[in-house]
Write a structure and sequence with these properties.
Blueprint lengths: L2 E6 L3 H12 L4 E4 L15 E2 L9 H18 L3 E2 L3 E4 L3 H14 L5 E3 L1 H8 L9 E4 L3 E3 L4 H11 L3 E3 L4 E5 L2 E4 L2 E10 L5 H4 L1 H6 L3 E10 L10 E3 L1 H6 L1 H4 L4 H11 L1 H5 L5 E5 L2 E5 L3 E3 L8 H15 L6 E11 L5 E7 L2 E6 L4 H13 L7
Parallel strand pairs: 1-2, 1-12, 2-9, 12-20
Antiparallel strand pairs: 3-8, 4-8, 5-7, 6-7, 10-11, 11-12, 13-16, 13-17, 13-18, 14-15, 15-16, 19-20
Helix pairs in contact: 1-5, 1-13, 2-13
Length: 370
């Protein structure tokens, strides 16, 4: 049976595309190689860092936030408008946050004192110079969000073809190892499998796989379940922060203060979920990454994060290697290889953040900002 839209890939970007298409009254079919959502979308922090994204992506950012709120209301998944706390560990770091606050305004960035940071992250003994609170950022539980959206879509008329490996997509026809499907439009969200399905696009963006080390710690009750905490490493990683005038000075300071974090390309952060405290992460880039994890790097991330949130003896509940598509040339990819096909990817670890906004651009037939 022909449908209005086929979505290839049941990660969060694919599910966001399916959710929005369904809300527009279109018939939708989702095709995925696995038997449930088990990839990048459940391996992350569940942190929607809307505020830290680049200025030119702001329309997409706030459309994504609206999409998350609508999805949470419809499906019943947990989504907390809890914001993000950013403790500053030096005067220079605080200077960057002050510049960012002036640039974006108080609706997006609020400068806070040490007691507010201590309360926000649940550590009364935190050592900081104050910091910032980003009130519009959101939290979801990454282990719940994608599976819950998929379940709700399946219960509300969206067809799922699990365990189908897509071999080719062209002119509205999707060929899989278990048959062919036809639609008016196809939205492909292949993550790093783009290298197999659309090699020319992957080569254009020098697509590769980013692997990251993460862990879940036992979370003391004093640390909020909806915690989102970013540290100074995020200032050099997210384009919104990284555009501030004092960033070059801060990068030099960070390289001297935390050389081991810089060496493993860390984005030191933590988020809370009912099961524990998610901490991480380091970054490695390769076309064919090896599965081995460096214990010293893992311990470094745990120790640094534990010191900030005041956990003296961290108890590790789980460790894992996350993986997502990365490009050194773009944060987001939207390509149309033919009139009926749109290819989407978030290629800098911002898939949860940008998912609904990117899906909205694709469904409306628009283009990404240059």
């Amino acid at each position: 049976m022909k449908t209005d839209v086929i979505v290839v890939g049941a990660g969060i970007i694919g599910l966001a595309s399916a959710f929005l298409a369904h809300r527009h009254g279109l018939t939708v079919r989702v095709i995925d190689r696995s038997e449930r959502s088990v990839g990048s979308s459940i391996q992350n922090f569940g942190h929607a860092c809307f505020t830290g994204q680049a200025d030119e992506f702001q329309d997409i950012v706030w459309a994504s936030r609206e999409g998350w709120l609508k999805a949470a209301e419809a499906t019943g998944l947990w989504a907390s408008e809890s914001g993000t706390y950013m403790p500053a560990q030096s005067d220079t770091e605080m200077q960057v946050l002050e510049e960012f606050a002036q640039h974006r305004g108080s609706e997006q960035v609020q400068l806070v004192d040490v007691p507010a940071i201590a309360k926000g992250i649940g550590n009364p003994e935190v050592q900081s110079f104050g910091g910032a609170y980003l009130p519009l950022d959101m939290r979801v539980n990454p282990r719940e969000a994608a599976p819950r959206i998929a379940q709700w879509l399946g219960e509300n008329g969206v067809n799922f073809e699990w365990h189908h490996e897509v071999k080719e997509v062209v002119d509205g026809t999707v060929k899989t190892n278990r048959g062919e499907f036809v639609a008016e439009r196809v939205i492909c969200c292949p993550n790093f499998y783009m290298t197999q399905l659309f090699p020319d696009i992957a080569d254009k963006y020098e697509l590769r796989v980013c692997t990251l080390m993460m862990a879940m710690l036992e979370r003391p009750k004093r640390i909020p379940e909806n915690l989102a905490m970013l540290t100074g490493t995020a200032l050099t990683r997210y384009d919104g922060f990284a555009a501030m005038p004092s960033i070059p000075k801060f990068k030099g300071e960070l390289a001297q203060r935390e050389p081991e974090l810089v060496d493993c390309i860390a984005n030191l952060m933590a988020t809370g979920i009912p099961e524990g405290l998610l901490v991480g992460d380091s970054h490695n880039y390769d076309l064919s990454p090896e599965p081995f994890m460096d214990e010293a790097v893992g311990q470094l991330l745990i120790e640094k994060t534990s010191a900030l949130v005041g956990i003296e003896r961290p108890r590790v509940l789980q460790r894992w290697q996350g993986r997502y598509a990365d490009s050194p040339l773009a944060n987001l990819i939207l390509e149309r290889p033919d009139e009926q096909t749109c290819v989407l990817a978030a290629t800098s670890g911002i898939g949860m953040t940008m998912s609904f906004g990117l899906a909205n651009v694709a469904l409306l037939g628009e283009e990404l900002p240059v």
